[in-house]
Amino acid sequence: MSVIVPVKGPDHELRENLAALATQDYPDYELIVVAHSARDIPPACCRTASKWFWRRATTLHRRESAEPEGGGGGGAQAKPSLCIRRFRWPGDAALVEVAGGAAGGERRGASTGYRWYAPIPPTFWTLLRSVWDAVALSRLGPGDCSFAWGGAMAIRRETFHDLDIREHWKDTVSDDYSLTAAVHAAKLTIAFAPGAMVPCFERISAGQALAWMRRQMTITRVYNARLWWLALVGHVLYCGGMAASVVASLLGYRLAEWALIAQLSPGMLKGLNRATLAKAALPECEGWFKRHLWVHAIWVPLGRGSGWRCW
């Protein structure tokens, strides 16, 4: 099995995560660290990681002045395609991509995990991002999933080559959307692996949170315009209905309050259910969930009002 870790500069607990990946005892296992340039691999990782780790890991980077073989963009973000064109995979390997800063019977084409933002210590904006991002977890479960998350997705080597994923990854900024489209176009399914849930502890500012949300929506609008428009219509109806109920309540229509409760309750219950399931998948974060699980129920209307999740 080959595990690819795209690195694009300093990231929260990057050194610890790389060291953890390097200590896996899976047979025929290799760890490949990929970066756009050598400067994107923080020096601290090289200085503090054990010698054994760097003997175990294969580190590849692209020269800044060179283009990937076969064309393709790349920009400043490390992309798996940069190393896939330069490495001979073992004959019976699975290709796995994991986030650098993150700690069956059907015809399955790929499997996926997902992230859960559990910021320590939490702030308003980090918790809001956690609530906002968790909505996508509702689209993962038994059967075919609607997307594979780029931070923890796996695909068998033969499937990777049969679907020509390298070609799909050319000139793209979203490796997960591209892989998802290729797998589903081949009538294969994407399986969700709860054991591959990844807790993310990083903190961000208000500006970073809003920029991150905007980037998620922009990527969806480019790679899945139909879903983006459906999400926009749903968002407008959701917020419009809440606003109308509040105005009607202020004007003295008592039934409007029940209408507002009927609108808010399903989403809040789903948020609580998502957090409960995530808690079961992430026992190492039990303390965090004990203190902040309620946020994923109470803040759902706030998260919906700050933007819409467009997976």
Describe this structure in words.
This protein is an alpha/beta fold and 311 residues long. It folds into two domains: 2-200, Spore Coat Polysaccharide Biosynthesis Protein SpsA, Chain A, CATH 3.90.550.10; 206-306, no CATH class. It has 14 helices and nine strands. It has helices at residues 14-22, 43-48, 51-56, 81-84, 124-134, 157-162, 165-168, 175-185, 206-223, 225-250, 255-281, 286-292, 295-298, 300-306, and strands at 2-7, 30-35, 57-61, 94-98, 108-112, 115-117, 152-156, 189-192, 198-200. It has a seven-stranded mixed beta sheet with strand order 3-2-1-4-7-5-8, sandwiched between helices. Strands 6-9 form a two-stranded parallel ribbon. The chain is globular, with a radius of gyration of 21 Å.
Features:
311 residues, 2 domains, globular, two-stranded parallel ribbon, Spore Coat Polysaccharide Biosynthesis Protein SpsA, Chain A, alpha/beta
β content, as a range?
Answer: 5-15%
The CATH topology of the largest domain corresponds to Spore Coat Polysaccharide Biosynthesis Protein SpsA, Chain A
Q: How many extended strands? A: 9
Contiguous runs where pLDDT drops below 50 for at least 5 residues: 48-93
Helix content: 40-55%
How does the helix and strand content classify structurally?
alpha/beta
* CATH architecture identity of the largest domain: Alpha-Beta Complex
Shape: globular
Helical stretch tally: 14
Strand order of the largest sheet: 3-2-1-4-7-5-8
Quaternary structure annotation: single chain
Q: What is the domain total for the residues?
A: 2
Distance linking N and C termini: 29 Å
**CATH superfamily heading of the largest domain:** Spore Coat Polysaccharide Biosynthesis Protein SpsA, Chain A
- Return the average pLDDT rounded to an integer: 76
- Radius of gyration using CA atoms only: 21 Å
Sheet of most strands: 7 strands, mixed
The CATH top-level class label of the largest domain: Alpha Beta
What is the succession of H and E elements?
A: EHEHHEHEEEHEHHHEEHHHHHH
